[in-house]
Amino acid sequence: MVLEKIEKPNDIKKLEKSEWPILAEEIRDFLIHRIAENGGHLASNLGVVELTMAMHLYFQLPEDKIIWDVGHQCYTHKLLTGRKEGFESLRKFRGLSGFPKRRESECDSFDTGHSSTSISVGLGYAEAREIMGGNYKVISVIGDGALTGGMAYEALNNASRLKTNFIIVLNDNNMSISENVGGLSRHLGNLRTADAYQGLKTGVTNSLNKIPIYGERIVSHIRRTKSSIKQLFIPGMLFENMGITYLGPVDGHNISGMLRIFREASKVNGAVVVHIITQKGKGYLPAEHHPARFHGAEPFEIETGLPLHPRTKANYTNVFSTVMRKLGERDEKVVAITAAMKDGTGLKRFHNMFPERFFDVGIAEGHAVTFAAGLAASGFKPIVAVYSSFLQRAYDQILHDVCIQDLPVVFAIDRAGIVGSDGETHQGVFDLSYLSSIPNMNIMAPKNKWELSDMIKFAVDFKHPIAVRYPRGEAYEGLKEFRSKIVYGKSEIIYLENQIALLAVGSMVKAAVEVRNQLKEKGYHCTLINMRFVKPLDTEMLEQLIGNHKLLVTMEENVLSGGFGQQLAQYITQKNKQQIDTNLKIINIAIPDVYVEHGNVEILRKEIGIDTESVINKILEYM
User: Fold this and answer.
1) Distances from the Cα of 259 to the Cαs of 52, 59, 148, 262, 394, in angstroms?
2) pLDDT of 405-436, one tens digit each?
3) Strands, DSSP E only, in 79-165?
4) Cα dihedral sign for 212, 214, 219, 220?
5) CA 622: distance to chain centroid?
6) β-strands 526-530, 492-495: how paired?
7) Three-state SS for 563?
8) Which DSSP symbol is given to 486?
9) Is 201 helix (H, G, I), strand (E, B) or coil?
10) How is residue 69 annotated by DSSP?
11) What average pLDDT does this structure show over 83-87?
12) Which of 21, 28, 23 is nearest to 11 (CA)?
C-alpha cells in the first residue's frame, strides 16, 4: 500500500508521481471504512483528498502554515502527517480529534471548529512572519460556504493591504453543510462557468508563451496587472476589485494542475485567492448524491450508505420540525430563520411548505439575529433556529438589537449541553450563562419531547425575547403523565416531599428522576422540580422549598459560572436565607470551569461529574 509509506510529515514528497492517484484512492477507501465504523465528517473530507495532497506536496510542513477553516475536513491532512494509527480512536474520548489540534501535532497550525475564521488567522501568521523576518508560507483554506460569513470579509478587507505573500485557498464545492445561498454563491457560479473568459485567457496565455524569450515575461506582466479582460467577462470580480489577486478556477482533483497554480500563487507579493473546484463526497456515490447527509455521518453500512443503527425514536430536532410545520399552518406571521443549517436544525419541512417565510442567511449568525429583529419590529413572529455553540457568535446582536428593544424573537437553541464527538468547539454549555446576563431575555428548557412542543408554541405567542434550549439526540419520553400548562416564570413540581430537593433544568430532569429513584431506595425523602424557566427564577417555589428541606441540589448541563445554580444560590444568599449556622445547603451540579473535549456523551458526563452516579455520591457525602 502506498499509504503505508506515509509515516511522518513530508513523506508524500518521496512518492513517484505515478503513485499519487493510488494514494488518493487508498485515502478515500481508508476514510470510508473508518468513518463507517466510528462516524465522523465524511463528505467534506472525501472532497479535499487531492487538494490536501497537493498542498503537502508543494509546501513544507510544519515550517509552512496551513490553517483549515472549520477544520472538519482535515482527516487527509492528519493521515499525511503520520497520524494514521490514531484513527482507531477518532473522535473518541482522549483519542484523535476530528478537528485540527495544536496539541496533537506541530503541523496543526491553529485549533478551529467554527466557520469563517481562517483568513483572519492566516493574516495574523503572515504579519507575524514579517515582523520576525521569517520566510515561511501561510495558506488559509476556506470553503465557499464559509465565505458567506461576514468575518471572512473583514479579514479580506485587511488582507488586501498586505505587501507579502499570503495564499487563500478557496475550496469551492457549492456546499456548506446545506446548499449555499445568496449573492456570493451566484458570484462563484459565474466564476465557475465563465467559459468565454477562461477560454480566452487560456488561448492568449498559450499563444504568448510560444513567443521566444519574451513570451513568459509578457504573461507574467499581465498576471501582475489589473486585467480589464476580467472586468469585461466576469461581472464584479469581487476579489480583484478588493485588491486581492485571483487565480483560477482550477480542478481540485487534478494534483498537477494545483501544483502549477500554487507555484504561481507563491510568486505574488500580497494576498492571492486560489480558486479550487472540488466535489463534496467524491469517490463514494452515496456521499456524492447526498453530501448534506454525509456531512457528519453516524456509523453506516458501506454498501448502501444506510445507518448501522437507525433511530427508532424521534430526536428533539424532529419534534421541533413537526411543531414548526404546525405553527406555520396556523399562523402566517410565523417565519423561520437559519444560518446555513436548514437540515441540521429541522427546518427543511417548514421550508418546503412555506418557502416565502423561510430564510437561510448563510453562515452569518449575527446577521440572522438582527434580521430577525427587523422582522419582529415589523409585526412578524421570527424563530431563529441555531445550534447553541454557534449562537455564541451573535451575542452582541441578541443584546443590542433584540433585547434592548424587547422584541419578540424566539431562539430555538438545538444541541444545548454536551454534544459529544465534535469536542470543545461544539459543546453547547455556555448559553444559559451568557443569555441569563441579558436584561429582557427569558429562557426555557423542556424536560421531554412533549414539553418542547408546548414551549415552542408558548414562545411564539410570547411578546418578548425568549430562548428554548434543548439537547442533541433522542428525545426523552418519560414523565409523559406530567404535562401541565406552561405558566410564565413557573416551574413544575413533579414530586413534592422534604429533606432533599432536586431542581433540574431541561435534559437533567431525566437524570434527576434516576437520582431520586436511587435515593428513595436508600430511604431518603426527595422532591423533584422541573424548573422549566431558568430566567425568570421561580422564587415563589424556592421560598416554599427552603422551609422544609435540608439540601437543594441544582442540576444543569451548562457551565457552573453564571449558570442556573449560581443564580439560585445568589438569590437565596441575598434573601439572607442561607447562613453558615443553618441547616440549608446548596449543591450545584454543573460543568466545571473547563473546555469539555470530544468523546462519548455518557463518558464525558461521568468525567465532569454530572452523571447519575456522581450526583448521588455528592448528595450522600453531604447527607
Assistant:
1) 11, 10, 27, 5, 39
2) 999 999 999 999 999 999 999 999 999 999 99
3) 138-143
4) positive
5) 39
6) antiparallel
7) coil
8) P
9) helix
10) S
11) 95
12) 23
Using CA atoms, how far apart are residues 32 and 109, in angstroms rounded to an integer? 26
Where are any strands of DSSP class E within 213-306? 245-251, 271-277
Residue 275 pairs with which residues in a beta bridge?
170
Q: State the DSSP string of 16-31.
A: -GGGHHHHHHHHHHHH
Contact by Cβ (8 Å): 409, 401: no
* C-alpha dist (Å) from residue 192 to 152, 185, 275: 20, 10, 9
First to last CA, the chain: 62
DSSP character at residue 399: I
Scanning the structure block, which residue is given the C-alpha cell 421561580?
538
Phi, psi of 267 (to 5 degrees): -85, -10
Q: How far apart are CA 167 and CA 395, in angstroms?
A: 31
Q: Looking at this protein, which amino acid is placed at residue 407?
A: L
CA-nearest of 480, 487, 493 to 528 is: 493
Return the amino acid letter for 29.
Answer: D
The predicted-structure confidence for 477-527, as pLDDT tens digits, reads as follows: 999 999 999 999 999 999 999 999 999 999 999 999 999 999 999 999 999
Task: Please list, residue by residue across 297-311, b when 16 or more beta carbons sit within 10 angstroms of its beta carbon and e when fewer do.
Answer: bbebeeeebeeeeee
Using pLDDT thresholds of 50, 70 and 90, give the confidence band for residue 12.
very high
Match 462563484 to its residue by C-alpha cell. Answer: 188
Q: Cell 456522581 identifies what position?
A: 614
Non-local CB neighbours of 429 within 8 Å, separated by 6+ positions: 388, 417, 418, 557, 558, 559, 591, 596
CB 405 within 8 A of CB 377: yes
Residue with cell 489589473: 226
Crossing angle of the two packed helices 118-132 and 150-159, in degrees rounded to 10: 30
The answer for 70, left when phi > 0, alpha when psi is -120 to 50, beta otherwise, is left
Q: Which residue has the cell 501582475?
A: 224
Average model confidence (pLDDT) across the chain? 91
DSSP letter (8 states) at residue 294: T
Enumerate the active-site residues: 280, 365, 393
Location of C-alpha cell 484513527:
87
Report the distance separating Cα 161 and Cα 157, nearest Å: 8
CA atoms of 299 and 382, how far apart (whole Å): 35
Cβ neighbours of residue 138 closer than 8 Å, sequence gap 6 or more: 64, 65, 67, 122, 125, 126, 129, 165, 166, 167
Residues of the chain above pLDDT 90, percent = 82
Contact at 8 Å (CB) between 321 and 331?
no
SS3 of 297-336: ECCECCCCCCECCCCCCCEHHHHHHHHHHHHHHHCCCEEE
Q: Which residues contact 164 (CB under 8 A, 6 or more apart)?
A: 126, 129, 130, 269, 270
Distance (Å, rounded) from C-alpha 8 to C-alpha 81?
A: 5
Measured N-to-C along each axis, helices 316-330 and 449-460 cross at an angle, to the nearest 10 degrees, of 40
Picking from 122, 116, 119, the residue whose alpha carbon sits closest to that of residue 155 is: 119
What is the band of 311 on the pLDDT scale with cuts at 50, 70, 90?
Answer: confident
The answer to whether 250 and 274 are in contact (CB under 8 A) is yes
User: Grid coordinates representing 179?
Assistant: 446548499
B/e letters for 90-116, b = 16+ CB within 10 Å, e = fewer, are bbbbebbbbbbbeebbebbbbbbbbbb
Residue located via cell numbers 448534506: 292
d(CA 183, CA 197): 20
The neighbour count for residue 89, using CB atoms within 10 Å, is 14
What DSSP letter does each residue of 442-497 carry, written as one string? Answer: EEE--SSHHHHHHHHHHHHT-SS-EEEE--SSBPP---TT--PPP-TT--EEEE--
